[in-house]
Design brief:
Largest sheet: 7 strands, mixed
CATH class of the largest domain: Alpha Beta
Bound molecules: flavin-adenine dinucleotide
Strand order of the largest sheet: 6-5-13-14-15-12-16
Number of helices: 13
Keywords: Monooxygenase, Oxidoreductase
GO molecular function: monooxygenase activity
Protein name: FAD-dependent monooxygenase
Strand content: 15-25%
CATH architecture of the largest domain: 3-Layer(bba) Sandwich
Radius of gyration: 21 Å
CATH superfamily of the largest domain: FAD/NAD(P)-binding domain
Organism: Phycicoccus sonneratiae
Helix content: 25-40%
Pfam families: FAD_binding_3
Length: 398
């Protein structure tokens, strides 16, 4: 069987690597002209995602580009600690979670897939796709007129997926979650020692929600979520990095915590990212085509699970294709839908908890303190991240 994968992000690259490990042929079409190794946002990969990396044989490669973490510390605007929530239970090797550039994760998966024999085509944007609904062979049409085909077409083309719309023209569009995301890194800051090692420090602030994570090399990774209407193309073009940083530092200066200083002294790597989620997609697959990752279930970043879900999808899908061929597609949907939709819903709840008004803030802080103290939050995180795929999934082909 040959897979034709549209998209070489986390979901597409993991699908390709999984396919090669069980002896399936795979072509990956990625519209970017080069493998992106350092751009964009930082993510924290929870233990359920690390477990899939382990099965794919790339956990050590991930450890080489990631920083270990174990806790989320929740703080009120005035600096009071509202609670501590674990990021999950450790894997056998001791890792709980790894914080890394998302592009570093997809790059290591791409590298391993190519080394294992995947056919990666860069600069190959699928202008349209034929999903094989009428019994035809699935194919993608590229800008140069070429038309690669496969036995199954895998849409791993992200939240704005073209494959999703080809499968179902009435498929839902992503929903703006009401927050714009900014992120960056600050070097040579004493916050790298003042912050607790291995912990994300989340401040539920007056005008924004911020996070800071100390790396062990003296840098601190941070982000700022600002509740506001979406950034328009005109606003983006007219706003310099320095102006965004001034604005963010100003927002964060209303709170006790590291964000204002980190933003003022740091490098902005992600500016004005309008954050979307995608809750329920009615059509996950056709007779010979299927969706994985953000193309079929994008949680808000607050869930901390989007990349881990994409990795789980890839492993489950490839194992079913290997054993059952195209007849495995309904089982893929049946096995995944409930879990991922629950995680998207939880992500939406967390996002809306970030930004109440002044009265709501006092209530919210008390509520968060109660949830953390009672262990409810920890149980929810541990429940999600303790998920492990079947032990025999993706056993290498002999
Ligand atoms: C700010 C932010 C913070 C996040 N934090 C976390 C976190 O802490 N933990 C976590 O697990 N997840 C997190 N996520 C979510 C995670 O990054 C995504 O869920 C994950 O990257 C989805 O991977 P994907 O491969 O499905 O989609 P994408 O990463 O969007 O990849 C899609 C790929 O398809 C390519 N493509 C698109 N269209 C075409 C086409 N027509 N032809 C060819 N190629 C195409 C694109 O170039 C891209 O490479 C975060 C997301 C954001 C935005």
């Amino acid at each position: 069987m040959r897979l034709l994968v549209v998209g070489g992000g986390v979901a597409g690259a993991a699908t390709a690597l999984a396919a090669r490990r069980v002896g399936l042929d795979v072509t990956v079409l990625e519209r970017r002209a080069a493998v992106d190794r350092d751009a964009g946002s930082w993510i924290t990969l929870a233990p359920n995602g690390l477990d899939v990396l382990d099965r794919l044989g790339v956990l050590d490669a991930a450890r080489a580009v990631g920083w270990p973490g174990h806790t989320n510390r929740l703080l009120a605007s005035g600096g009071r600690v509202l609670g501590e929530v674990p990021l999950g239970t450790p894997l056998a090797g001791g890792s709980v979670a790894l914080t890394m550039k998302r592009s570093a994760l997809s790059a290591l998966l791409v590298d391993a897939a190519v080394a294992a024999g995947a056919d990666l085509r860069l600069g190959a944007a699928a202008a349209s796709v034929e999903v094989g609904t009428g019994g035809g062979t699935p194919a993608a049409v590229l800008a140069d007129g070429s038309r690669p085909t496969g036995d199954v077409l895998v849409g791993a083309d992200g939240v704005w997926s073209r494959v999703r719309r080809a499968l179902d023209p009435g498929a839902p569009a992503p929903r703006y979650v009401g927050m714009v995301n900014f992120g960056g890194v600050t070097a040579d800051t004493d916050w790298s020692e003042r912050l607790a090692p291995g912990a994300w420090h989340f401040v539920f602030g007056r005008h924004c929600f911020t996070g800071a994570f100390p790396l062990t090399d003296g840098r601190v990774v941070w982000f700022v979520n600002e509740p506001r209407p979406q950034v328009t193309a005109d606003e983006r073009a007219a706003t310099s990095e320095a102006r965004w940083r001034d604005h963010l530092a100003d927002l964060a200066s209303a709170d006790v915590g590291p964000a204002a200083e980190l933003v003022a002294a740091g490098r902005l790597e992600l500016a004005g990212d309008n954050t979307h989620d995608l809750a329920r997609v009615p059509t996950w697959h056709g007779p010979a085509s299927v969706l994985v990752g953000d193309a079929v279930h994008a949680p808000a970043p607050s869930s901390g699970q989007g990349a881990a879900m994409a990795l789980e999808d890839a492993a489950v899908l490839v194992d079913l294709l290997r054993h059952r061929g195209l007849a495995g597609l309904p089982a893929y949907e049946a096995g995944r839908r409930r879990r991922v939709e629950g995680i998207v819903r939880a992500g939406a709840r967390t996002t809306s908890a970030k930004m109440p008004g002044p009265v709501g803030r006092v209530v919210r802080d008390a509520f968060l303190r109660g949830l953390a103290a009672s262990g409810v939050m920890a149980r929810e995180v541990l429940g999600t991240t303790a998920h492990r795929l079947d032990a025999h999934l993706l056993e290498p082909a002999r």
